[in-house]
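To close the section, here is one more complete example, presented without commentary so you can practise reading it yourself. The ligand is zinc ion.
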Amino acid sequence: MTKGTPSMGKHGSKKQHIPCRRCGKSSFNVVKGVCASCDYGKSPRLRSYSWAKRH
Ligand SMILES: [Zn+2]
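Output:
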């Protein structure tokens, strides 16, 4: 019954990602103060890369 990857040790103890107020995803890193999805808090503009086109 113990199959899979038991790498959830640092999970659930602390909130690390909260909903970002710019992109709405739960990607805002409260430790870094930067959204992992849109770089809110780091970049004044939306994070956009050519390889990460939206649709
Ligand atoms: Zn964001």
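Once you have examined the tokens, check your reading against these statements. The radius of gyration is 15 Å. The longest strand covers residues 17-18.
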